């Protein structure tokens, strides 16, 4: 992956920052909501994902994943990419648009009734997330398509189910990079308008996985909380992955990188 290429131009986005070769939209919370609302109003098929230190590390090692991200609107997620942006461009991203907060915020802020499909997580957690979202944004209709544990043989039926429903928004929660690759391979404008790769969002919304206390989120320390509650699963992602990501950003800095504005 070319980690020192200039950031590409993203339709509808005035500026982007190249983080390890991935063009990340440099927009604030309100601009991001307005952009997605416009995509919905114009029925402009837009694949959406989020970049954090972990995803960026995976993209550096997985060429197929990195290539798939070129066709997504990528939003900045977390303190790691903000540190990288400061290092590379002298300023952080305008807003932290992590999907756990941004996606529910976007749905609440969108008053026009939408059909929202949920795909992924366990069925119990997906159902719980649908109930939570219905309470947060009752103007929309939420439908669980399937859990995330399906075989290749089941996939055509699931894709056909999505096409029949044709939700305005499809939340895909299968983990990185499976969810982005699944969207890239299976979703087109025939299936939905906004397929959004949301990681563990459905698990958080259902309450199965706790969020960090508000004060930790304000201090950008939610990753520490997650490490404390799931050390075996997450120690490599954070203890090894975070320094590796910052070393890669420093290497990009030394090689030279410029933003497209």
TrEMBL record:
CDD domains linked to this entry: Glyco_transf_WecG_TagA
Keyword Metal-binding appears in the UniProt entry: no
Protein name per the record: Glycosyltransferase
Gene Ontology MF, one: hexosyltransferase activity
Pfam families: Glyco_tran_WecG
Domain of life: Bacteria
Record flagged with keyword Zinc: no
NCBIfam families per record: wecG_tagA_cpsF
Entries under InterPro entries matching the protein: WecG_TagA_CpsF (IPR004629)
Organism: Borborobacter arsenicus
Keywords from the named record: Glycosyltransferase, Transferase
